[in-house]
Amino acid sequence: MDLMDRTLVVDDELDICLMVTKHLQKMQFETDYAVTLKDARSKLDKSIYEFIFLDLNLTDGSGFDLMKYMKELNLSPKIIVISAHDNESTRALAMGAHLFVNKPFTMKTINDALRTLNFLPN
Fold it and tell me: What is the extent of the structural domain holding 28?
């Protein structure tokens, strides 16, 4: 893992953003979070992220909207979709998500996802 690996956590639940952000920062990832689609777009306009934890149901739109926005900007971060609606996994993966994690999840689940995407050693 490069100390410059940047990640963005996008979830409308602030406690999830803070929990995942703190966990990633302990592992030396430079981590930002956004609780709205608008805030996430703003952060994507200013920074390059290697991977994004993305909730699909946001107060001002959908994680699918953000995935489309990233494609329009030719951004290609690894995307880990986190959602309580596992029926959306097929669509999320078809739209470019690399992994789908069901809510509720644990920090072990996050670590496993990072290992799968080669951001953590096995």
Answer: 6-116
* Residue 70 within any structural domain of the chain: yes
Structural domain count of the chain = 1
pTM passes above 0.90: yes
Residues 6+ apart with CB under 8 A from 67: 54, 79, 92, 95, 96, 97
Q: Give the CATH number of the domain where residue 108 resides.
A: 3.40.50.2300
CA 16 to chain centre: 11
DSSP string, 62-119: EHHHHHHHHHHTT---EEEEEES-GGGHHHHHHTT-SEEEESS--HHHHHHHHHHTTS
Q: Return the pLDDT at 61.
A: 96
